[in-house]
Amino acid sequence: MTRPMTSSKPVVELQGISKEYKSGPKTILVLEHVDLAIKVGERLAVAGPSGSGKSTLLNLIGTLDAPTSGRVMFKGRDVAKLSPKDIARVRNRDIGFVFQQHHLLPQYTVLENVLIPTLIAEAAPRVVKRAEELLDRVGLADRVDHRPNEISGGERQRVAVVRALINRPSLLLADEPTGSLNQQAADELARLLIELNKEFEMAGRPHARGDCGGAAWAGRVRNGPDQPAVRRAARGEGSR
Amino acid sequence: MDRTNRPFDGRLAERVRADEPRLDVAAVLRLPGMLSLPPERQRSYDQLNRVQVLGVDSEFFTFAEAPAAVALDPQTIAVNEKTARALEIKPGDDVVLRVMRPNRMPLDAPLASRNGQPAAVSVVTVAAVLTAGQLGRFSLSANQLEPYNVFADRSWLQGLAGEEGVANLLIAGGDVERGDAQRAMDRAWDLEDVGLRLRSHPSGVIQLESDSIFIDDEAVSAAREIAGSSPTLTYLVNSISHDGRMTPYSFVQAGPAPPGMESGEAVINQWVADELGAAPGDTLDVAYLKLLPNNTFVEQTRRFTVHSIASMEELAIERDLAPQFPGLSDVESCADWSIGMPMDESRLKDPANEAYWRKYGQTPKLVLCFDDARQMWANQFGSVTAVRFSGSGLDVAGVAERLRQNISGEKIGLDFVPVRELGRTAVSQSMDFGGLFLGMSLFLIIAALMLLGLLYVFGLQQRAPEIATLASLGFSPSRIRGIFLLESAPTTVAGAVLGAIGGTGYARLLLAGLARFWPAAVAGTPVSFHASAGTMAAGGGIAVGCAMVVVVAVLWRASRYSPRQLFATDFASVSTAPRRCNWLLVPPTAALVPAVGLSLGAWLTQPGSYALDFFAVGALMLLALLGYGWWLLSRLGSRQSFTRPRVWKLAVVNLTRRRGRTLSVAGLTACGCFLVFAVSSMQENVGLHASDRSSGTGGFAVFAETTIPVTGSPADAGATIRADAAPLRVRDGDDAGCLNLNRAQLPTVMSWVASF
Question: Considering the domain boundaries, does residue A135 fall inside one?
Answer without folding.
Answer: no
